[in-house]
Amino acid sequence: GRFVHFFESVESTQKIAHRLAQENADEGTLVIAEEQVSGRGRMARTWYSPKGTGIWMSLLLRPSLPPQKAPQFTLIAAVAIVEAIEKVCGLKVDIKWPNDLLINGKKITGILTELQADSEQIHSLIIGIGINVNQDIEDFSEEIQQIATSLHIESGKTFSRAGIVQEILFNLEKYYAVYISEGFEPIKEIWEKYAITIGKHITARTLNKEIKGLASGITNEGVLKLIDENGETHLIYSADIE
Ligand code: BTN
């Protein structure tokens, strides 16, 4: 069955979703928590997930696809979340490749797509979604205030997290079906409408190198194309963008 597993407090919903995936949980299984005490971000960072103010959840999918297709799911999720926030909260959201959703230049959402796969086939794909919803500015440390915001801070309103979750899941189901029947192209088009990275001069930092250049677009796999000053194209699978 497609169960929703709800917890008051967990280390990380991502960790629980991985375990359920190994125990053969079905596609559509959702893990959601009021609080995470060791929420995980990309590149081995932690994700601050205080009690009762945000959406901390992980969705298990089992697409019959090779692992190279996984980055596309981060983009599918981004589109589903942007449209949900715009509809429910009336706020304009920008996408910063690969996985950041920003309001007025500050981070509102992070997406972490992880896999259990072999070289040919995805066994499980876990989309972790963290959304800052009802935090006040004082709830963030000074350091986090510089880079992050919440839907409440941006609008002055308090939102029902369940209403937002419902809209996100509705959109995810819709775009997953579009993806399965029509491929990535229609989703890529919507994604590009919200993306602020494309067409800009950027610096891409990975764990061990730094490349500067023009972000010229994304491939059909959802990978960023970066043209450096020598005109050489680099394919960036994951990086911090500045
Ligand atoms: C990032 O921007 O670095 C990605 C952050 C992803 C955070 C979410 S919150 C729910 C899920 N559980 C985790 O431990 N992380 C993801």
Task: Offer a quick outline of the entry.
This protein has 242 residues and is of the alpha+beta class.
Mean of residue pLDDT values: 94
CATH uppermost class of the largest domain: Alpha Beta
SS-based class: alpha+beta
Helix content: 25-40%
- Estimate the strand proportion: 25-35%
Total DSSP E strands: 13
C-alpha Rg, in Å?
17 Å
Give a list of the ligands.
Answer: biotin
Helix tally? 6
Q: Main sheet?
A: 8 strands, mixed
CATH topology of the largest domain: BirA Bifunctional Protein, domain 2
**Terminus-to-terminus distance:** 42 Å
CATH superfamily of the largest domain: Bira Bifunctional Protein, Domain 2
Judging from the principal axes of the Cα atoms, what is the shape? globular
CATH architecture of the largest domain: 2-Layer Sandwich
The arrangement of helices and strands along the chain is: EHEEEHEEEEHHHHEEEEE
What is the domain tally? 2
List the helices and strands and how they pair.
Blueprint: E1 4-10, H1 13-22, E2 30-40, E3 46-49, E4 54-61, H2 70-89, E5 94-96, E6 100-103, E7 106-117, E8 122-132, H3 142-147, H4 151-155, H5 161-182, H6 185-194, E9 201-205, E10 210-218, E11 224-227, E12 233-236, E13 240-241
Parallel strand pairs: 1-2
Antiparallel strand pairs: 2-3, 2-4, 4-8, 5-6, 6-7, 7-8, 9-10, 9-13, 10-11, 11-12
Helix pairs in contact: 2-5, 2-6
The protein binds biotin (BTN).
